[in-house]
Amino acid sequence: MIKRYRLNEIVLIVAGLSAPNMHYFSNIKRFKYVKVPAKTIILAKNGMSSTEKNIYQCETEVCIKNDIVAIIPDESIILSDYLLYFLKWYQLSNDWQHLYYATVDLPEIEVQTEIVQFLNALQLLMKNKEALITAVEGLPQHFSNISLQVENHTSDLHRGFNQAQNCYNSLLHKVFKGDFFKEIQETHFSIERLCEMK
């Protein structure tokens, strides 16, 4: 079952305070900051609408200052990883306060987990793309008479990585636009079949 939420119903959005002067570090009682827990999504207040979004997920508890917005998910409703992918897909504007009213369609936690695992796998594959291609291209120096096979394999790898990137982009768009869940409900497609859908 899919349920639509406004972000302010399922997350706590916190803006950082002014950054402290250096002398406050010696006296922690006078140190002004906002502490946020691990799994919080943080983003810069300025430059949110740029194509290179500065969105991160905290691995540990951190302190933020005034140019940072922290989004703390209620993980009984939305997984932090799912929220991270949503915010990477979502068209942010320069006014971060509009996030309070952004809407997201959410499946059950189990479905969110499957989607996140699939997106994580695609992202890991894309992260290792250059190393994998370089390793394949380096094979001819270790073996004789395989240059043509390596060229063909490298070409196949490039096509495969392009397909993986397209699948990643398609999944983000279909999941967060809502089309994916409609297709699942209507046809019972699995996430793995998403790449086959046009």
Report a brief summary of the structure.
With 198 residues, the chain is α+β, with helices and mostly antiparallel strands. It has helices at residues 7-10, 80-89, 109-127, 129-137, 147-177, 179-187; strands spanning 3-6, 11-15, 34-36, 41-44, 55-57, 62-64, 68-73, 103-106.
Can you put this structure into words, describing what you see?
There is one protein chain. This protein is α+β, with helices and mostly antiparallel strands and 198 residues long. The protein has six helices and eight strands, in the order E-H-E-E-E-E-E-E-H-E-H-H-H-H. The chain has helices at residues 7-10, 80-89, 109-127, 129-137, 147-177, 179-187; strands at residues 3-6, 11-15, 34-36, 41-44, 55-57, 62-64, 68-73, 103-106. The strands form three sheets. A four-stranded antiparallel beta sheet has the order 2-7-4-5. Strands 1-8 form a two-stranded antiparallel ribbon. Strands 3-6 form a two-stranded antiparallel ribbon. Helix 3 (109-127) runs antiparallel to helix 5 (147-177) and helix 4 packs antiparallel against helix 5. The longest helix has 31 residues, at 147-177. Residues 18-22 have low confidence and may be disordered.
